[in-house]
Amino acid sequence: MAKQLKGIAASDGVAIAKAYMLVDPDLSFDKKTIDNPDAEIKRLQDALDASKAELELIKSKAAKSLGEEEAEVFEAHITILSDPELIGNIEDKIKNDSVNAEQALKDVTDGFIETFEAMTDNQYMQERAGDIRDVTKRVLSHLLGVELPNPALIDSEVVVVTHDLTPSDTAQLDRKFVKGFITDIGGRTSHSAIMSRTLEIPAIVGSEKATTDIKAGDTIVIDGMHGLALVNPDADEVAKYQKMQKDFLAQKAEWEKLRDEKTSSKDGVHFDLAANIGTPDDIKGVIDNGAEAVGLFRSEFLYMDSSELPTEDDQFEAYKQVVSGMNGKQVVIRTMDIGGDKQLPYLPLPDEMNPFLGYRAIRISLDRTDLFRTQLRALLRASAYGKLAIMFPMIATVAEFKKAKAIFEDEKQKMVKAGTKIGDNIQVGMMMEIPAAAMIADKLAKYVDFFSIGTNDLIQYSFAADRGNEKVSYLYQPYNPSLLRLIKNTIDASHKEGKWTGMCGEMAGDQTAVPILMGLGLDEFSMSATSVLKTRSLMKRLDTKEMKKLADKAVTEAETNDDVIKLVNDAIK
Ligand SMILES: C=C(OP(=O)(O)O)C(=O)O
Ligand SMILES: [Mg+2]
């Protein structure tokens, strides 16, 4: 039997392929005194040439598979490698100090990095510091004769094995070759897991020891449904998982038949089934999967994908593409939710002890109203092209919502006055993701047009358990009655005021949660596009009156998360 690794099931599907280790190698070295500087300079030149050749190759591959823009960063690296000042300084150091090329390279590049990083008000130079750091790593790897992982050069089917994947790493994976991935850290609602679902790559996160227990070239099975990986499976195991893969694809084909159907329960009650997106390009997946709306566009990805603050026009183009791409179906765009695990290289945030509890999301927008107003103007302009709704992330108090809404109204009035065309009825709502806000949902409901419950954060804040930390992932308890009560409170409060409530946290597509949420009267379910059709299929089988009874029991009788799982299993099987 093969060695098994257990982790958190992050994205459905089965993958069987060779392991690709996306792990930084050991680049440590000793400082040495040398007696032949010419030979040392020759070593340096060879390493520089090899690095350049490698970067040229990566650049052309990246341009083909990921696009010209993604490839630009490699061009910047090639330019650095040809910089006479930098190279001259390293050569001088070898000659004057009689040190090995590794040491000279490090001393000189450290100096540049330090100088550039000190220019805190010069975004361009700060980014160059990051580029020099990357280039130094590459040259060092050639000097030391060790291989750096180059994901852009992957040209056969692989399972990527890595400690963690940032959203931008994930975006660089070429779906043609990357069949699955497994990480050491992360939780089901960490952003790498969410991205893996959007990209439809079977994935396991938080396995704790993938990078230590797996070696390059091992054959890996990823069972994304159960969070299980097999290392070097035997023939029987491979056959078993090939069958599971076939069954999964057959099931998917069955669900696909529901693509053009409206979503309704067995007793004919309609629910809006929407999808979450991170970039305008994700709209294709939304339409292919038959979603009826976009329930969450995480606009911060627009900021994260850029090397500088996107201008009003850049943003307008992106929002317009999404709004018009949905052909009159509703699109809910959330204003920038930066902070926590989402950072912008060009907008350095203060170092904080608890970034998830710190300066983030609407807190930044209400402080940096210049950024907020730019975004609101871009949104208002895009509203003319379809049915746009806007929501604010991380609202904790009535005062915050009122302040944000007032700024929105101010920008709107200015546009109306200037004669700019905007949409007729732009709804303005808020994310419900902070327990304090969920407790006063009745007060907030008077001011909002809608709530969208962000369970990823609502759960982490309710249970005081970091959503990205696998060590506390047992506290990700979406069915716990405590959480269900906050959800019920929110839905009921909105309905009392004649407003609607959606959910855009991962729980909305969770097949155990869906029956309860239907019973609680949730109006809109927004999830990874790839979960839409299976959810439509499930809803079709369920009767809302029965689900209401189930939800009542879950909220009032159950004591634990497990109690509720049992209630659901008994009710729908
Ligand atoms: C949808 C949510 O927002 P994000 O995952 O981007 O924090 C949430 O918190 O549930
Ligand atoms: Mg959130």
From TrEMBL:
Cofactor field: Mg(2+)
Primary localisation category: cytoplasm
Domain Phosphotransferase system enzyme I N-terminal: 6-128
Reaction(s) catalysed by this chain's protein: L-histidyl-[protein] + phosphoenolpyruvate = N(pros)-phospho-L-histidyl-[protein] + pyruvate
Species for this entry: Pediococcus parvulus
Compartment(s) of residence: Cytoplasm
The keyword Nucleotidyltransferase appears for this protein: no
Domain PEP-utilising enzyme C-terminal: 252-543
Keywords: Cytoplasm, Kinase, Magnesium, Metal-binding, Phosphotransferase system, Sugar transport, Transferase, Transport
Primary role: General (non sugar-specific) component of the phosphoenolpyruvate-dependent sugar phosphotransferase system (sugar PTS). This major carbohydrate active-transport system catalyzes the phosphorylation of incoming sugar substrates concomitantly with their translocation across the cell membrane. Enzyme I transfers the phosphoryl group from phosphoenolpyruvate (PEP) to the phosphoryl carrier protein (HPr).
Keyword Protein transport: no
EC number from the UniProt entry: 2.7.3.9
Chain segments annotated as transmembrane: none
Similarity-based family: Belongs to the PEP-utilizing enzyme family.
Pfam families: PEP-utilisers_N, PEP-utilizers, PEP-utilizers_C
Coiled-coil blocks: none
PANTHER family registered for this protein in UniProt: PHOSPHOENOLPYRUVATE-PROTEIN PHOSPHOTRANSFERASE
The protein's name in its UniProt record: Phosphoenolpyruvate-protein phosphotransferase
Location of the PEP-utilising enzyme mobile domain: 155-227
InterPro entries: PEP-util_enz_mobile_dom, PEP-utilizing_PTS_enzyme, PEP_util_AS, PEP_util_C, PEP_util_CS, Phosphohistidine_dom_sf, PTS_EI, PTS_EI-like
